């Protein structure tokens, strides 16, 4: 099996984590990347064996407006600094993937600078999309061009140009030969040209065994990207939304139905890149209405089909919400000494550590086929079956404990991999009690014995005075775990001697998901949904308006089955023209 099949990723945004200046003055290199060297041991200790780090290369500001693909950003150090960092990760058994920002460059990139200087005579005039020398822009270049997201700072590369393709493929070869990188995460893969990505995949297959190309994709049919010819994986934004809203709304139907939807899209062996937060979306501890649901959210993250990822700092339960027009609060500096001093007593770190090691030790979670066992709004159970062995995940998003019975495998006894509790198999089933806002992973006792890490998944189980939380730094929002423990400990003292409710499977109706912080758009009204736009015959997707593209997508969805209100809302929330074009084309 490939290394990524049973990996747990740690995700670092290096310019933020190291406290680099917001703007690059291209002065002498400062080796801030070395601040991350002590974190390698922490990454390994919490059970992560892979690292996604980026953007890394020379840029003007946030890192995605690349100036030089072959030079480490001066704010982080030199190429030797990065070589040393990757080497230390490999020595610790940690694979490393870089951000590949190949959809666009910055305005300081050599090809664009030549275009500005030589205009029509530039040999790089065809490196960029729709360069119009009769136009202009806010920089007064005397010409216009296509960009990403409406930002002229991000100049869109012409990925159909053979010279551009060759250049980017050479960059990948350079990263492998120079830094020994193990894979790339393609930024903005949902608007990349598919032939371009196929060429990148061919290069990936040549440069290193099991080199892992994955892509950032928001909407669309993930199966169009995840296949033998294009990418190994994409970012699972569909499940990201379900993770937190399914808990906030007491609606496990949303999570389970999303998983079925993704399975139908990509097949039972899909290996999507799963996450609950990252450098572009708000922290999971900020999104959860009840912070105690941090536990079942992460139990699901580590046990569902796919590759789990933890965004730096979220293993401490820190919060972070977007500022006015800035993502900086999502990308804070984390001084190692300050955070490590409190890691041993932090309940969130304890949980993530247990889950990381369980995931790596349990082959069923990496390779097993998914099977739903029980589903209600507030309790959910499923199995991962592999080579005759069955591992069972159970979660509870209710503020009260509950007893459930689910079918089990061939073992005579199961053991909770987190708690160490053992339960017998009787008549082919196990009966277990789930604490409030908790989760557990049940493994065959005869196979996994007593070697499992043991902790407690219920964040509320720690007394308030014991729940040490890292202090905020440089604009970071203070973690609410400690305050939450104080608040919930009062309400969850309901563990009385009264008999616990017994949960019957699939009896409740799903509740409607609520609007999220990532998408502060109102629910579509019937008037919105019924409004039809006349689309002239023969009009190309590129020529269509956002409203027309949304209507096309909804029409294609309807051909595949019922279109729910949530599906409609997801379409209306997407107002990015390029992404909508790709989404429309993704239907088979």
Name the strands of the widest sheet in spatial order.
Answer: 11-10-9-5-2-1-13-12
CATH superfamily membership of the domain at 236-302 and 326-517? Golgi alpha-mannosidase II
Task: Give the oligomeric state.
Answer: single chain
Distance between the first and last residues' Cα: 30 Å
**Count of extended strands:** 22
Structural class: alpha/beta
CATH topology of the domain at 236-302 and 326-517, by name, is: Immunoglobulin-like
* DSSP strand content: 15-25%
- Backbone CA Rg: 24 Å
Highest CATH level, the class of the domain at 236-302 and 326-517: Mainly Beta
In the CATH classification, which architecture of the domain at 236-302 and 326-517 applies? Sandwich
> Mean of the pLDDT scores?
86
Low-confidence runs (pLDDT<50, min 5 residues)?
A: 460-502, 504-529
Q: How many H/I helical runs?
A: 19
What level of helicity do the residues show? 25-40%
Q: Strand count, sense and closure of the main sheet?
A: 8 strands, parallel
Query: How would the global form be characterised?
Result: globular
């Amino acid at each position: 099996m490939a290394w990524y099949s049973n990996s747990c990723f740690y995700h670092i945004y290096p310019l933020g984590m190291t406290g680099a200046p917001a703007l690059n003055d291209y002065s002498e290199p400062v080796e801030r990347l070395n601040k991350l060297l002590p974190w390698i041991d922490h990454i390994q200790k919490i059970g992560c064996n892979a690292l996604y780090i980026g953007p890394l290369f020379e840029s003007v500001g946030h890192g995605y407006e690349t100036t030089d693909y072959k030079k480490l950003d001066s704010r982080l150090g030199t190429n030797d600094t990065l070589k040393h960092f990757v080497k230390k990760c490999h020595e610790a058994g940690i694979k490393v993937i870089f951000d590949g920002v190949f959809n666009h460059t910055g305005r300081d990139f050599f090809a664009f600078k030549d275009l500005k200087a030589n205009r029509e005579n530039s040999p790089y005039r065809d490196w960029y999309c729709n360069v119009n020398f009769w136009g202009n822009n806010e920089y007064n270049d005397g010409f216009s061009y296509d960009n990403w997201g409406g930002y002229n700072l991000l100049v869109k590369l012409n990925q159909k140009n053979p010279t551009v393709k060759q250049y980017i493929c050479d960059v990948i070869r350079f990263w492998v030969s120079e830094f020994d990188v193990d894979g790339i995460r393609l930024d903005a893969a949902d608007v990349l040209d598919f032939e371009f990505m196929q060429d990148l995949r061919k290069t990936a297959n040549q440069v290193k065994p099991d080199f892992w190309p994955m892509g950032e994709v928001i909407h669309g049919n993930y199966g169009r990207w995840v296949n033998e010819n294009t990418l190994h994986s994409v970012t699972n934004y569909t499940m990201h939304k379900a993770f937190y809203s399914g808990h906030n709304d007491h609606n496990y139907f949303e999570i389970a139905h999303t998983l079925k939807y993704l399975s139908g899209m990509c097949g039972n062996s899909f290996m999507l890149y799963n996450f609950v937060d990252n450098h572009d979306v708000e922290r999971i501890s900020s999104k959860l209405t009840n912070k105690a649901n941090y536990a079942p959210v992460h139990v699901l993250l580590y046990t569902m089909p796919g590759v789990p990822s933890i965004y730096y700092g979220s293993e401490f339960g820190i919060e972070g919400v977007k500022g006015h027009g800035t993502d900086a609060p999502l990308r804070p500096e984390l001084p190692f000494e300050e955070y490590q001093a409190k890691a041993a007593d932090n309940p969130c770190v304890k949980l993530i550590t247990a889950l990381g090691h369980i995931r790596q030790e349990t082959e069923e979670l990496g390779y097993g086929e998914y099977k739903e066992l029980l589903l209600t709004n507030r309790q959910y159970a499923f199995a991962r079956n592999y080579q005759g062995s069955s591992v069972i995940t159970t979660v509870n998003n209710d503020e009260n404990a509950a007893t459930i019975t689910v079918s089990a495998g061939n073992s005579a006894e199961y053991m909770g991999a987190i708690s160490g509790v053992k339960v017998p198999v009787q008549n082919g089933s196990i009966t277990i009690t789930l604490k409030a806002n908790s989760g557990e992973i049940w493994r065959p006792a005869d196979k996994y014995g007593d070697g499992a890490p043991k902790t407690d998944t219920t964040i509320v189980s720690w007394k308030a005075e014991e729940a040490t939380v890292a202090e905020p730094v440089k604009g970071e929002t203070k973690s609410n775990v400690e305050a939450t423990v104080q608040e919930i400990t009062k309400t969850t003292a309901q563990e009385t001697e009264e008999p616990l409710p017994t949960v019957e499977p699939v009896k409740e109706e799903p509740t409607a998901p609520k609007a999220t912080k990532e998408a502060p758009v109102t629910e579509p009204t019937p008037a919105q949904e019924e409004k039809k736009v006349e689309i002239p015959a023969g009009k190309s997707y590129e020529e269509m308006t956002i409203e027309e593209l949304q209507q096309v997508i909804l029409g294609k969805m309807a051909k595949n089955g019922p279109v729910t209100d949530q599906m409609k809302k997801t379409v209306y929330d997407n107002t990015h023209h390029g992404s909508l074009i790709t989404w429309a084309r993704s239907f088979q």
